[in-house]
Amino acid sequence: xxxxxxxxxxxxxxxxxxxxVIGLEVHAQVTSNSKLFSGxxxxxxxxxxxxxxxxxxAMPGMLPVINEECVRQAVxxxxxxxxxxxxxxxxxxxxxxxxxxxxxxxxxxYKSPVVGEGEVVVELDGGNTATIGIERLHLEQDAGKLLHxxxxxxxxxxxxxxxxxxxxxxxxxxxxxxxxxxxxxxxxRSILRYLGTCDGDMExxxxxxxxxxxxxxxxxxLGTRCEIKNMNSITFMGQAxxxxxxxxxxxxxxxxxxxxxxxxxxxDKGETRSMRSKEExxxxxxxxxxxxxxxxxxxxxxxxxxxxxxxxPDQKKARFIEAFGLSPYxxxxxxxxxxxxxxxxxxxxxxxxxxxDGKLAANWVINELFGRLNKEGRDxxxxxxxxxxxxxIVDLIGDGTISGKIAxxxxxxxxxxxxxxxxxxxxxxxxxxxxxxxxxxVIDDIIAANPDKVAxxxxxxxxxxWFVGQVMKSSGGKxxxxxxxxxxxxxxxx
Amino acid sequence: MTDLTxxxxxxxxxxxASKSFTSLELTDxxxxxxxxxRALNAYILETPDQARAMARAVDAKxxxxxxxxxxxxxxxxxxxxxxxxxxxxxxxxILGNFVPPYESTVTxxxxxxxxxxxxxxxxxxxxxxxxxxxSCFGPVVNPWRRxxxxxxxxxxxxxxxxxxxxxxxxxxxxxxxxxxxxxRQPAAFTAxxxxxxxxxxxxxxxxVAFASSLDQAGPIARTNRDAAILxxxxxxxxxxxxxxxxxxxxxxxxxxxxxxxxxKIGIPKEYRLDxxxxxxxxxxxxxxxxxxxxxxxLVEVSxxxxxxxxxxxxxxxxxxxSSNLARYDGVRYGLRVPGRSIGEMYENTRAEGFxxxxxxxxxIGTYVLSAGYYDAYYLRAxxxxxxxxxxxxxxxxxxxxxxxxxxxxSAAFGVGEKGGADPVEMYLNxxxxxxxxxxxxxxxxxxxxxxxxxxxxGLQLIGRPFDEETLFSLGExxxxxxxxxxxxxxx
Lengths: 494, 491
Prior knowledge:
Chain A has helices at residues 68-80, 178-195, 234-253, 299-307, 313-324, 328-336, 338-350, 354-376, 387-398, 404-417, 421-427, 436-449, 451-459, 464-474, 481-492, and strands at residues 11-13, 16-29, 88-89, 92-95, 105-108, 118-123, 129-141, 145-147, 156-158, 165-171, 207-216, 226-231, 261-266, 271-277, 287-288, 295-296. By secondary structure, chain A is α+β, with helices and mostly antiparallel strands. Chain B is of the alpha/beta class. In chain B, 38% of the residues lie in helices and 13% in strands. In chain B, strands 1-3-2-4-6-5-10-11-9-7-8 form an eleven-stranded mixed sheet, with helices on both faces.
């Protein structure tokens, strides 16, 4: 067992605490224009059976030819998972009968996968991290889809998805609770999306997870595992793990034993149920596919791909912390999604002084922009405020042209009406007043009009805040807050 | 018109070029011959309209001086090759009336070079058989008969239709495929020349797969020269078949008549079987003597793992077949026998669609790949395969140019005579030929003589990888010495 495994949340049973042991097999659809072994399109959502080549339909005498782009994507993913890249790997046939598999076998990689061991660092609550080991990544064909709602007596089959390249990414059993599992899939998805090797769209089924769950007494021997198939939502996966762990604990505590089996999660009922037992499990009769030569490439090819990898979330996070003094939490929030990170990078690019305002920009992206987007249920890619506009607002704060408070008003105007923030500040007279004479005059007027408040403030300096408020109000929020404070203290003698 | 059908491809090529006759005349002559020879059951689909259309088109091209290397030559096509818009069944009920919307690479190259398709030829179901008796269209009859006998003999298999049609002059040449001897054994049984090229020499794309790592397409013809002419069109790299070799295709015909002087010819002692008929022994010695008198040097060689080849073959080939034939499930094309569930539909379809021999091999293959048996059978068979390959490599490393062996352990046998009780009796037909497939090497069977009953016997030459040319040179020496053999017409 991996010595770096992070203990997870234990589950209390009648006989004491239980530890959950989880391993994940994630199926990630490879981003490519054509399928793994045929030239057919991989476009999602086409009319049934319109993206099917003779090879996909397993017509007699058809032969698979490897799509090099899919290999490239698998290798890039392996590099992104800090994994060993195998310069020679083998495609095997996994034999089983089902109408969604026209060949009667799936071309997969069994004994010699293209990618070997690697690891993923995942972010947990409270700024903690855990390192999850990767066992392997291999390439395989996706299956078609059965349509059961087209006829009362027949099922129909749509082969559009049949033969699309999948990467099966197998974790080591290093995951110890639902939170870690969710964090792992979240991070994996993020890495894939940074790499552009999988769109990570779980709703479309581009990313699906099979979850192996077992329970044991902490430090005890591993329990019998059950596999929950085809989870296509991170939230449901978390629920399924919680349910399944408790189910297993109850059985064991009642004196029963766990049957190794494949289960399905029903999100409506919030429970898992048996799909097939170990006895019913297929004998896949794996053997090397004689239609395909072993997959071989050079170290130079791998090195070339490595040199072209984009900056990945962990590297980006470290850079944000290092260069702009972001907190690890803020940095994690920004890098979690490629689009967020890209947006922040664009804001940074728009700044006049990145070193000075990088952190301020992060605050604005996270608190103002994300907050507002969340509130309206909008995606970052549909933000009404562009990165350039936000950068400009941050610039205006950073160079003292406007106060933070005015900036919020400005943000609102830009959100609602658009426009160049710097121009808006000019035309709408939102500029911060730093003219000490003008501020002094306002202060003098207020002091003169409120002798009682002056007395109170002199007795209790905290009450000076009332004067700050009045001055800001009177200046329409444009007075420089620091100047107001300094002048007030002097005038009130506090 | 008999003259037209008895010509060789080389002769017909000259006649067409000199405008002595047209391709349409040549084609019509063959179509008539086919019609008159239905008793042989060599063709399972005659395509006269298409044949005449192709012949007319090629005649027009010849007139303009645009004919290709096979311009106007009528050929028969084994039913394992997908032919666009022409029914292709692999002689299995399970494919029913399957009409492919695509053309196999090999046949498309033949049409590219101007050949004319006469029809589809019978074969053992999915090429599984050594007598052409497993075809769902019934057995093919060998045009050869024992002297003074009316007994119907098998033409060998699985390319029995091809061999029979070429021998009976129902086409000038035919495509065939060879997984364990399916070109060479029928060639030997019918006094034709059959070439199993090096694995990867011809594209497998569009050929119904039996055992992918062993299957190779090749020609059956009446002379070495004709086989060489056909090979040049059939061979070549195909990006659609990853296992096809990216090598230039030589002018095989140039090897015909080339001197074999100084070539070292291996005589493998392990091929001298106990109880081998004296006639086969004699034929082998004669063949060796002919090569020697042509200037070749005979060397006894050892291929120590030969005896394991047949058992290993009957693990590897069925294993691949069990997987290759999984696609015939009644879902998308071909036969479907309904059932109450998908499982039942599969069972009904496959039980009715596959013949007994195919079912047997699918079951053997499924068994040897099963968990717990894989290592003992499939993995071990692959190791044997490596050793067999190494036997040949060692031999060639000693300067051996080719190896001479008998093609078959006997002459053609009677329809229904063999394999009824014990399938191994039938499997033993391939004892001299399977090693070549296991090692991926080229092999040729050439007619070399007759047995006491007047039935043809063949010799096999095994070559270095991609050295089919040497086989043609040596085959021509045997052809010149032994002469050509034509069956007497009784049909």
